[in-house]
Every structure is written in C-alpha cells, then in structure tokens.
Amino acid sequence: MADEAGGPAAEVGALRDKHSMLPRVPDKFFDETVQELLSPAGSSRGRVALLTGCVMNVVFPEIHRDVVDVLLRNGFEVVIPKGQGCCGSLHGHNGDVRTARALARRIIDAFDGRQLDAIIVDSAGCSAFLKEYGSLLRDERHYALRAENLSKRTKDITEFLAEVGYVEPRHPVAKRVTYHEACHLVHTQAISRQPRRIVASIPGIELVELPEATWCCGSAGIYNIVHFEDSMALLERKMSHIASTKAEIVLTGNPGCHLQIDYGIRKFGLKAEVMHPVSLLRRAYEGA
Fold it and tell me: Which of 59, 66, 223, 266 would bridge with 279, disulfide CB 3.0–4.6 Å?
C-alpha cells in the first residue's frame, strides 16, 4: 500500500534523516584534556579565557584546540575555567529564560576575578548570547554589574584577532574556499569582514564569495529538529550555492551551521570539508 503523506513510513524516513545528522562524539571532551592555564612560549601580550560551552566542548574539541593554539602562538595566556557548562543560549532562544539565567550566573561565577583582557568564544550563538548577559541579568542585584562587565569583554575569536592583531601565516594553503556567515555572527554581532580578513591573509587561499552567504542554512539552534522540512528546504538552497562555488572547504563560525552544512555535503554528494576559519589559520601556521 502506498504511503500517505505524513504517514508512519514518512515519519520513519524523517527520523532516519534526523538521526544521520547526529555528529560523532569523541571519547574525551575538550575540558577533560586540557589544564586550566596555558602560557605562550615567549612573552605574554595579555590574558584571555576560553568559553568551552557544551556543543563545542563535546562535539568540536579540535576547534577549541585550534583556537587555543592560535592564541598561544600570538602571545596570549589562555585560561580555561573549570565548571563552566552551557551558556544558556538555546534555553534563552526557546523561551526558557529561568534556566538561561541560572546558566548565565554559573558562567559569570566561573569567569569572575581572573583579570582577563577578553573572554574568547568560537561559537557564534554563544558569543551573541554572552553579549546579552547584561540585559538578561539587569534586574539581579548580585549579578547585574558583573553580567554587564562580562558582556563587554566577550569577543568572537575572529573579532578578537582582528582587533588586537595576529601573526599572519607564511605557509601557503592552496585551497579554494568559501565562507558561510552564521546568523548569530553577521546579523546579531555585525561580524563579517573580520573572518574574511583572516582567511584572505593566508597565502595560496582562493576565497570565493558564497551567493546569499548571509542567508540561514536552516540549522538555527533546534529549528532543524522541530521544523525539519522547512530546514531542509533552506539547506538545499544553501548547498546549491555552495556547489556553485566549487569550494574544497566551507568555512563557518558556528557549530549548528557546521553540522548542518556537513550533513548537506553528505546528503547532496559534494566533495568538500567544513572548517572554522581559525582552524584554517592554524593549518596555515603549521604548513599542513
């Protein structure tokens, strides 16, 4: 018997597709493999802290390692406070403000009193939300000022490197790349030229502009789970544009986008890999 639209077979198929989007989780999370204070080999330009978060800590420890390596190479001490946990962005974006505030207070407690020049974040959704802590906790007497101070010190890693300056790599990376702009980076934080500047500074790179680069890929937190079909329509459009660039590497600065586009590459049979811009910078530093 033919399956009716929306029938059990269709639901099973959608569930199978959702399951195939799940990432592989390494045996050890990032915060289990690193000490709390890391120092550069030479003189220090300053001290920063890294937000380990939840998805980045669990699914993308290699991106955290790339970010730490780049910061150390550029002369910064890196503090990785224990007991951080989730920043609360997914909770806040989905209306669970009470939990979001509790998680924000935990983050503030973890980072307080460390004499930091900046709090570095390599996930667009997380950096956007940390920058909203001042507003989120403005009515809490014991946290309002601390939240505002943390928000002011929060920097996306590409934003920070562009502001303070970084050692431009000498080793060429002969790759054709394109850049997808994560919504929470370009629309919420107005960060767009900084990652492009970093990528363009790598010798040998051919940066091809992605059509509709600022359009959503369909991930949008948990949108690709609760609105799967709509999400897939956005993804198909995005992947069509990525295919048109003939890029070997698709760069993006948010884990949701990273997972969504990686799924799209497999789904539509493209030959490309997804990377964070700072991971590409580290590759150029090492000459890999």
Answer: 66
